[in-house]
Specification:
Layout (H helix, E strand, L loop, with lengths): L1 E8 L3 H12 L4 E4 L15 E3 L4 H5 L6 H11 L6 H20 L4 E5 L9 E4 L1 H14 L3 E4 L3 E7 L5 E8 L2 E13 L8 H7 L7 E2 L8 H8 L4 E2 L7 E4 L19 E4 L12 H9 L6 E6 H4 L11 H6 L3 E4 L2 H8 L3 H16 L26 E10 L5 E2 L6 E3 L5 E7 L16 H18 L2 H5 L1
Helix pairs in contact: 1-5, 1-13, 3-4, 4-13, 11-12
The protein binds flavin-adenine dinucleotide.
Flavin-adenine dinucleotide binds next to helix 1, strand 7, helix 7 and helix 13.
């Protein structure tokens, strides 16, 4: 049987960061990827990463701090997050941002995104990011990647330590030994109807947009060996996808964070649009047919960001996914809502803003505590039909800050590590944009380092 120091399951951002870090440490590493290419859900993502105190923020004149980032995460997570994981993220986030840059990962823009008190969404092109990590991995003679190799079970030795991975490749079953650790980085289960039915039945009507590989394989493997799971009650979808969206062609727009309102098929607002798009998703699924429209005017349109995955409204227009008309009457007609109700909804919203009052449902900002809403009054007017998509699960095995998978009594399961979307506990009750890719990078590295330490060192 072939033997490695570390066997990593999954070649998304978490697995690739772990592979680079372990490669740098000189460890013998095998990464098993069940698909024929790297990237998983990472390469489908919008590429936002949450970091604070970066050179990009300084250049843009944005004052930020690790403390503020951590406070936002805890607030968005409704204080259900594991504080130790948040603090560990805080300690390592800036260093990890610089580590990625040194590996050639390119950060392109900085945007205000869901949950953040200041613009803190640093965007990467996720394909470019994964390729930069892969380029580094190929330089190591001590790191191997097997493609089309699906891990199927984990085995324990006589001392109760998990030390072998069974995987399927070329129509055969193989077993490989891991002397220091097995690191689960196989992503979430956004594409597993079986698990979504079990844990998120309310999201039955939502679109499914995630990597085909994300079936929760390793969640089941870890469960078999007694892993505890966290954050499952908070599974939620993401609002802002056109009902025709699929993973291949992204049709997403978050105009509400630039000042659009959300109206249901009755022509009424129903929520504070500055909330996390996960909470907006829950609220919108309760509306008739689970469908609503983002409605905005030219003032908001002018805040579109060219080539941004969330804010490129001109792109939605070019794809013919937007209605664009000169009057609100025409808009009501296009989206088939009662004219008088839509006009009344918008007039009440505008009055609230113009009188400096709190707008109905408590809207005070564009996103989280950032930015000021503007009245919807300047033609042309726009509407974008929107629904909810299940992108990522953000819930899963309990881990400590060294990436050790924990049992229900918070005791490490010997030999077993995890990082990335397969882990729970970090986001708590709510996900803040950019913190999933962020946690993949930070904890992918830490889990690899954790596994390569001897267990006695790790316990210190
Ligand atoms: C459309 C979309 C937009 C998003 N936008 C953002 C964003 O802007 N910011 C953000 O922070 N998050 C975002 N997310 C979430 C984020 O992309 C994911 O949570 C993150 O990329 C997960 O990374 P990972 O490395 O844990 O898993 P993945 O990137 O999914 O990689 C897991 C890999 O494991 C492989 N695998 C699975 N099972 C096995 C097995 N049994 N054996 C071997 N290999 C296996 C898979 O094939 C896959 O390649 C978005 C997600 C989507 C879908």
């Amino acid at each position: 049987m072939k033997s490695y120091d570390l066997v990593i399951l999954g070649g998304g951002l978490a697995g690739m960061c772990a592979a680079v870090e372990a490669g740098e440490q000189g460890a013998d590493v095998l990464l098993l990827e069940k698909q024929d290419e790297l990237g998983g859900s990472t390469v489908l993502s919008s590429g936002y990463m949450a970091f604070a105190g970066t050179d990009m923020q300084v250049e843009a004149g944005i004052t930020d701090s690790t403390q503020s980032l951590m406070e936002d995460m805890i607030e968005v997570g409704a204080r259900m997050n594991d504080k130790t994981l948040i603090e560990t993220y805080g300690q390592h986030q800036l260093e990890t941002y610089n580590w990625l840059i040194n590996l050639g990962v390119e950060f392109r823009t900085l945007q205000a995104v869901s949950g953040h008190s200041v613009p803190r969404g640093h965007t990467i092109d996720p394909h470019q990011g994964i390729q930069a990590l892969y380029k580094r991995v190929k330089e190591f003679s001590n790191v191997e990647i097997f493609f089309n190799a699906r891990a199927s079970r984990l085995l324990k030795n006589e001392e109760g330590r998990i030390d072998r991975v069974v995987y399927e490749a070329d129509g055969e079953s193989h077993t490989v030994l891991a002397t220091k650790g097995i690191l689960l980085a196989s992503g979430g289960f956004a594409k597993s109807e079986e698990l979504l039915k079990l844990f998120a039945p309310k999201l039955d009507g939502s679109l499914r947009i995630g990597s085909e590989g994300n079936q929760g394989d390793a969640l089941k493997m870890a469960w078999e060996h007694g892993a505890w799971v966290l954050d499952l009650p908070y599974l939620s979808g993401t609002y802002g996808f056109h009902p025709s969206a699929n993973s291949a062609v992204k049709s997403q727009g978050l105009a509400f964070y630039k000042g659009a309102i959300m109206v249901n098929l009755l022509g009424k607002r129903f929520v504070n649009e500055s909330l996390s798009y996960k909470l907006l998703g829950n609220a919108s699924l309760e509306q008739p047919e689970g469908i609503s429209y983002q409605v905005w005017d030219q003032t908001v349109m002018e805040k579109a960001v060219h080539d941004d995955p969330l804010y490129d409204f001109e792109l939605l227009k070019r794809r013919r996914l937007l209605y664009e008309v000169d009057t609100l009457d025409e808009l009501a007609d296009c989206i088939d809502v009662p004219i008088e109700v839509l006009t009344e909804t918008i007039s009440r919203y505008n009055k609230g803003i113009q009188n400096g009052e709190e707008v109905e449902f408590g809207r005070k900002s564009l996103t989280h505590n950032y930015g000021e809403p503007t009245p919807i009054e300047k033609a042309p007017f726009y509407a974008f039909e929107s629904t909810v998509a299940m992108l990522a699960t953000y819930a899963g095995v309990a881990v400590n800050s060294g990436g050790q998978v924990l049992n229900p009594y918070s005791e490490p399961i010997p030999g077993l590590y995890a990082a990335g979307e397969i882990t729970g506990g970090f986001h708590g009750a709510g996900y803040m944009t950019g913190t999933s890719l962020g946690k993949c990078a930070v904890f992918g590295r830490l889990a690899a380092l954790g596994a390569l330490k001897t267990e006695t060192e790790a316990a210190k």
